[in-house]
Write a structure and sequence with these properties.
This protein is α/β, with parallel strands linked by helices. 43% of the residues lie in helices and 15% in strands. Helix 5 packs antiparallel against helix 6 and helix 7 packs antiparallel against helix 13.
């Protein structure tokens, strides 16, 4: 990422006819740049630390004014450090003329500014805490909105509606996590000021409150057309007992599916959000080579075929340790082929387009996650990316709190507090990813690079 203090400039309005256009400038040295570009009417531009003001001005006579004349403009000036991006910022409103806008931008660059990258103004607001990641992504969602419902959802996030709920739950869970971990750390203390272990009903009550708040946010997203039903479905398919459920658990990072060596352990389909790829991962019952007469198996195969018909991406699983035949009759959808249980096989056929995996050793899990994310990213849009990312994150946090609630309600088992803490910590981590409290710079760059220049 570039320095948040560099002097940048960009047009902030879309090309095309209109009454007014906006050119946005920001960064250290803005005061000097404004003085070179414009002649301000009294009292002039605001001083550092002063309140923002609207300044009437005209193109400077010894600059652009010499070619364009004394064109009147209005400059909304935030001198910093207060303001939308935590530093000097100016929005110049001028007549909507493409050549004039280009001339102002070029003149600013001639005096030391550079053209802003896509989303760089919004990124600066995010980095100084003026916006959380949900609100920053909502800027993109407003631009990309295709329906009134999408626009309403984006504006709600820009106003902090959904993000405020997530932030409240995250803060409450952090308090709960601190209490539980303190109870664990001081469990053996016998001093009068030792931290008592919180009663299970208290833990359960606080977990339920967080779970209910997230469930309400999830319902709100679904009503706005951005729930998990709108997420791409990535389906694991293969013959019975080829390790699909183990691979499913490894990908989602928890024991969501029952795993056993007996054939036919999975009889129904399971789904869980894969937050790193912005999709739902679906584990199906194995598809036998021939139809069985067992009614339960027949029903399981029918349910699996129904889920396959809904698949946006298919992950075809074949056992490296067995000579299983590939599943036939698959619908038309992007496919990823994997060999499972590679830790059990010394050799398998070399296939350039196949990912070798092992749920036991972790081999190939990260490459498979990356491959899924790449294929999902190439799918046609199904709602705004910001809404879908939030839906995945909220669903994953809900799943973590559900697991914590199960641990909180179990009586007579040692280590319950540690289990609760682990699940709550996972929920907090997911919520941090949603709001941007903890997020990698690569993901930040990827998110903000999709924004328009000037935003």
């Amino acid at each position: 990422m570039s320095s948040a203090h560099e002097l940048i400039v960009a047009p902030a309005t879309a090309a095309g006819p209109g009454a007014r256009a906006i050119v946005r400038l920001a960064g250290d040295g803005l005061d000097g740049l404004l003085a070179r570009l414009f002649a301000a009417a009294p009292p002039g531009f605001a001083l550092p630390g002063a309140a923002p003001r609207v300044v009437a001005a005209r193109l400077a006579g010894d600059g652009l004014g010499g070619d364009w004349g004394a064109v009147p403009v209005e400059v909304l000036h935030w001198p910093g450090p207060a303001g939308p991006i935590g530093g000097p910022l100016a929005e110049v409103q001028l007549p909507c003329s493409a050549p004039l806008v280009e001339a102002v931008v070029a003149e600013a660059c001639r005096h030391g500014a550079r053209l802003a990258k896509g989303g760089e103004f919004t990124l600066r607001a995010f980095l100084v805490g003026r916006l959380d990641l949900l609100q920053a992504e909502a800027v993109l969602a407003v631009v990309d909105a295709r329906t009134p419902a999408e626009l309403a959802a984006a504006l709600d996030r820009m106003a902090g509606g959904s993000g405020a709920t997530v932030q409240r739950v995250r803060d409450a869970l952090l308090d709960l996590l601190a209490d539980v971990e303190a109870a664990i750390d001081f469990a053996d203390e016998a001093t009068p000021d030792a931290v008592p272990v919180a009663p299970r009903w208290t833990l359960a009550h606080r977990l339920e409150a967080g779970r209910d708040a997230l469930a309400a946010a999830e319902k709100h997203l679904a009503n706005r057309g951005g729930g998990t039903d709108a997420l791409p479905r990535v389906v694991l398919v293969g013959r019975p007992n080829v390790g699909k459920s183990s691979l499913f658990n490894a990908l989602v990072g928890r024991d969501a599916a029952l795993v056993a060596d007996e054939c036919g352990t999975t009889r129904d389909w399971l789904e869980a959000p894969l937050t790193t790829a912005g999709c739902l991962l679906v584990d199906l019952a194995g598809l036998p080579e021939a139809a069985a007469g067992d009614p339960v198996t027949v029903a399981a195969v029918a349910a699996a075929r129904e889920q396959l018909d809904r698949a946006d991406v298919i992950v075809v699983c074949r056992d490296a340790a067995a000579g299983d035949e590939p599943v036939g009759g698959l619908p038309v959808a992007p496919r990823i082929t994997v060999r499972t249980r590679c830790d059990r096989a010394a050799w398998w056929p070399a296939e350039d387009d196949t990912i070798a995996t092992s749920a036991a050793t972790g081999r190939g899990i990260e490459p498979l996650r990356a491959a899924i994310a790449a294929v999902v990213a190439g799918l046609p849009a199904r709602g705004t990316s910001a809404t879908l990312r939030m839906a995945v994150g909220v669903a994953a946090a809900c799943a973590a709190l559900d697991a914590a609630l199960v641990a909180a309600r179990v009586e007579g088992r040692g280590g319950d507090e540690a289990m609760i803490a682990g699940h709550v910590r996972r929920a907090v981590e997911v919520l941090d990813e949603i709001t941007g409290a903890a997020i990698g710079t690569d993901l930040i760059d990827r998110i903000f690079s999709r924004h328009c220049i000037g935003k």
